[in-house]
Structures are given as C-alpha cells and as structure tokens.
Design a protein that fits this description.
This protein has 267 residues and is an alpha+beta fold. The protein has helices at residues 9-14, 29-35, 42-69, 72-75, 78-101, 108-117, 143-150, 155-168, 182-186, 193-198, 231-264; strands at residues 18-22, 25-28, 128-137, 169-174, 180-181, 200-201, 204-208, 213-223. It is flat and about 80 Å long.
C-alpha cells in the first residue's frame, strides 16, 4: 500500500490524476476539485485541497485497517445496514405523509389562544428591549438635539434625526418597533448587558468610552428576566410549536392506521 504525494493545484482542475491511493481506493483530482467552492483564491484552493486529501487518507487508512484486521463476523454489517435502511425509508415516508397532510396555516387567533393557555412557558431568561442606539464623538455638534430626537416616535423627528446622524454618527442602530434581546443590544456598547442596563436613567443609557466616544440609547420599553415574554416577541416560536403539535398528531394517527392495516393482513 502507498499514498501518492499531492500534485500541483493546477492538475486538480485540468487532469484526472490520482492524487492519493490506498490499495484499491483512489482519489482523483476531479474528486478534490468537486469539493472546492467556487470563486476562491489559489492559496485557499491549495489549502482546502490538501485538507480534503488528508481527511481522505485518514478515513481510508482506517477503513483499510478495519477490512484487513477485523474478523469476518465483525465486518458483517448486513443487519445494521438493513436496520438503517428500514429506519431511513420509514423516515422518508413519514416526511412525505406529513408534507401531504399537514395544514401549515396558523391564524392570529390560534396563536393568541396558544399564548394565553401557555403563558407560563414563555418566561424570559434575559431582558428584551425596544430601543434606538447611536455612537458618536462626545464633541459632536447638535448632541442635545440628537438625544431629544432619539426618544421621539414622530416621523418628522425621525427624519430630522436621520439627517443629523448622517455625517456625525459612527454607528446608528434603530430596532424600530421590534424587540431585541439584551445580549445583542449590549454588543453595541462592547459591554455585558447587566453593566449597560445598570446605567439606564429616565430611559436613557449614556456611556462614554475612553477614546472620547459617546454611546447613547433610548429605551422605549423593556421586559426583564423572569417576566412573561410579550406575544409579538415569541409569535414565530408559537407558530412552530403549533405546527409541531400538528405533526405529532399526524404521526400518531399514522401509527394507528398502520396497525389497523397490518392487522387486516392477518384476517
């Protein structure tokens, strides 16, 4: 047994060279090039190609040792393969059955009903906020006006704010009327969320960095950990839960139907 060395990267794309070999197993340049993504540099192609070849060598070395050193009984995997085939076919049929039978429409009323009945399942683990955030220089012009507009919900004020921040803001993030979790929000400050929230005064969070950069956020609304999550924040999750329940019901009905069909063969 032997392994050939890696040939130049160009041959991977231009020839059917055997770039690695172990016993009857052969790896061609076509196999390697098929693995590579499009539009990558020559250096990346060479690196990924060598990685692929190394993994191929390891896998087939292990396979070679298994085939040459295991007993015939240990190499007999027919039962496992048959069990895997049965499981795979069952899974594929169940997926086809679900795709044909599942009603994927979920109304707002159904979501509201699920939320009302299961509120105790939607306790927040971390705070969530509705907020706007801006990062700018501490000597930025119109700072007071920016802070004032940051807290406004008036469309004209928002337009003025956008104009003021166009040239002066280092970063401006408006989460609109959507909830954001505190961890994601605190990334704008480059701090942990507990520290950030501890700085909140009258709905404003203002933190000056060492490099004369000022981070300001206005919090329109906040829900803390251990409170019940608002419906709009978990609406997508509730829809997924409803569909999951429907899937389980379909599978349960399928199992009963299959048993009835199987029993009919005995008569």
């Amino acid at each position: 047994m032997w392994f050939s060395s890696c040939t130049g990267i160009r041959s991977f794309f231009s020839k059917q060279d055997i770039v690695a070999e172990l016993g009857s197993y052969k790896l061609t340049s076509y196999d390697v090039s098929s693995y590579l993504p499009d539009n990558i540099s020559k250096e990346d192609s060479l690196y990924l190609s060598q990685q692929y070849i190394n993994r191929w060598k390891q896998d087939h070395m292990l396979l070679y040792l298994a085939e040459t050193q295991l007993s015939d009984a240990d190499k007999d995997v027919s039962k496992e393969l048959d069990s895997y085939r049965i499981a795979l076919l069952k899974y594929r049929y169940e997926q086809k059955y679900i795709n044909q039978k599942l009603d994927t429409s979920v109304t707002d009323a159904q979501i509201q009903e699920y939320y009302t009945v299961n509120k105790d399942k939607f306790i927040l683990e971390i705070p969530i906020l509705k907020t706007r955030f801006v990062k700018l220089s501490v000597d930025s012009p119109n700072l007071n006006e920016i802070k004032k507009k940051l807290a406004s919900s008036d469309e004209n004020d928002i337009a003025v704010l956008d104009s003021l921040l166009f040239n002066s803001a280092l970063l401006y993030t408006s989460y609109g009327n959507t909830w954001v979790d505190a961890i994601s929000f605190a990334k704008d400050f480059d701090m942990d969320y507990n520290t950030v929230l501890s700085k909140m005064r009258n709905n404003y969070i203002s933190i000056e960095a060492d490099n004369s950069i000022l981070c300001i956020a206005y919090v329109f609304d906040i829900k803390y950990a251990m409170q019940i999550a608002p419906l709009e924040y978990i609406k997508g999750s509730i829809k997924d839960n409803i569909l999951s329940i429907r899937k389980q019901k379909l599978l349960h009905n399928l199992e009963k139907d299959l048993l009835q069909q199987a029993n009919s063969f005995d008569k």
